[in-house]
Design brief:
The structure is a single chain. The chain is 17% helix and 21% strand. The chain is α/β, with parallel strands linked by helices. A hairpin with a 4-residue loop joins strand 1 and strand 2. The N and C termini lie far apart (112 Å). About 14% of the residues have low confidence.
Length: 465
């Protein structure tokens, strides 16, 4: 038994039928509510009083005669039974139907399409099964559709795109399958879309990323969706939450995500994203939760994470990051997780990472020892070669003078000393850069070797013509 049913009529008059009063219990269960026009207002206090028989919605059969009925609000009552077909006979003035958080089972009656002025249909957290009626798209005035947390199956009908007035569409936590219909792009006023935790598969249609009106959130988590996130996501400039976790998405994280300046929750974990973290994410100054865990991301953890003032949860675990973790990443030690990245080192002690081999070399540059080990022998060889050449020149012909390239003696011989000077200048420059105190200012080891081989080539070209 219910304590109250709230029914609202035109003129904002509240028609509340108190069921705890004996006189009204019998009319309710006997189905004689059709003549109810208005009763003094009562407060709606629900106490989970659904009957054991499981026919708790039979009273709806008699409401079809309430010609001015605007709202039916009966949530949180443990109501059992099915939604009767007579629901389709309700007054066309009905704008709101709340039957959520009960124990209703069976399917959604297709006759619900007769409620042409319905603006809010809330049936979430029941045990409804079957498919979403194809006719649902004919509710052209529907603004809120909540069917989440049921056991609905089948596909999302493409006709749902005809309900172009939708602001909120929540279908999460069901057993829906197939692909996301392209017609979802018709929702030009949509603020929130949640299709998470279903069995949806296939590539995400471009129409999803074209829903630039989305502000509260886009959640597609817990499906089997594939493909990349296109650069078009950067046009969702009003989006507060984006959750595509636990799918099979791939490709690199688009740099255009940095355009979504109001993002507070970004969850990309449990996919196959690769590449490095784009530097454009530093623009997300309002980000609170950033989860990139369980992907194939690589490279170094960027230092701009230090500059995110509101970050509460930064999860980078189980990727392929390397190098040193920036010290001081998030003052809140519980905010960062980097486990499962076996090539990381350093950071603060609470991360329990091994120390980097050269503390002064914090960002993955080749250690100074490595640079010197390779460059010193090459430098020595280069200087020795120059000295030998100069000595040989004097032994072969002491009359030769080391003049500028192009000078000649009486016999027309000239000494290519310009190349020797160029070679020496290159070697000295490499030595100076490699001796820099800051690792950031040192030349990369690959560049060191390249420059020294260039010097060697120039040296070998030095000859008497």
């Amino acid at each position: 038994m219910l304590d109250a049913i709230c029914l609202h009529e035109k003129g904002d008059q509240t028609c509340t039928i108190p069921l705890s009063i004996n006189q009204t219990i019998r009319p309710l269960r006997g189905g004689r509510l059709g003549n109810v026009r208005w009763l003094p207002p009562w407060s709606c206090n629900y106490h989970n009083r659904g009957t054991e028989e499981g026919n708790d919605l039979t009273f709806l059969d008699s409401l079809s005669n309430c010609t001015n009925l605007r709202q039916v609000f009966v949530p949180l009552n443990h109501l059992k039974g099915v939604i009767p077909d007579s629901l389709g006979n309700f007054s066309t003035t009905l704008t709101t139907l709340w039957l959520d958080r009960n124990l209703l089972h069976g399917s959604i009656p297709s006759h619900i399409v007769n409620l042409v002025n319905l603006e809010i249909l809330s049936l979430f957290e029941n045990k409804l099964s079957g498919s979403i009626p194809q006719s649902i798209g004919e509710l052209s005035n529907l603004q809120v559709l909540r069917l989440d947390h049921n056991i609905l199956s089948g596909i999302i009908p493409s006709t749902i795109g005809n309900a172009t007035s939708l602001n909120i569409l929540l279908l999460s936590d069901n057993m829906l399958e197939g692909s996301i219909p392209d017609s979802i792009g018709n929702f030009t006023s949509l603020k929130e879309l949640d299709l998470s935790r279903n069995n949806l598969a296939g590539a995400l249609p471009d129409q999803v990323w074209g829903l630039t009106s989305l502000s509260k959130g886009l959640s597609l988590a817990g499906n089997a969706l594939t493909g990349p996130i296109p650069s078009q996501v950067g046009e969702m400039v009003n989006l507060v939450e984006l959750d595509v976790s636990d799918n099979s998405l791939s490709g690199e994280i688009p740099t255009t995500l940095g355009n979504c300046l109001v993002l507070q929750f970004l969850r990309l974990e449990g996919n196959h994203f690769n590449g490095v973290i784009p530097l454009s994410l530093k623009n997300l100054k309002g980000i609170e939760v950033l989860d990139l865990s369980r992907n194939n991301l690589s490279g170094q953890i960027p230092e701009f994470f230090l500059e995110l003032p509101f970050i509460q949860n930064l999860n980078l675990s189980f990727n392929m990051f390397d190098g040193e973790v920036p010290r001081g990443t998030s003052g809140n030690l519980s905010a960062i997780s980097v486990e499962g990245n076996n090539k990381l080192c350093g950071g603060f002690l609470e991360l329990h990472l091994p120390p980097c081999r050269n503390p002064k070399n914090q960002r993955g540059f080749p250690p100074l020892k490595t640079i010197l080990t390779v460059s010193i022998p090459l430098l020595a060889l280069a200087f020795a070669s120059v000295s030998v050449i100069l000595l040989l020149m004097k032994v072969i012909d002491p009359s030769l003078n080391l003049e500028e390239e192009g000078n000649s003696d009486n016999n027309g011989q000239c000494v290519s000393t310009g190349n020797i000077r160029t070679c020496l200048a290159m070697i000295l420059q490499v030595g100076v850069v490699c001796s820099a105190a800051s690792p950031r200012e040192r030349m990369d080891i690959g560049d060191v070797i390249t420059e020294l081989y260039k010097a060697k080539s120039i040296l070998l070209e030095t000859r008497l013509s």
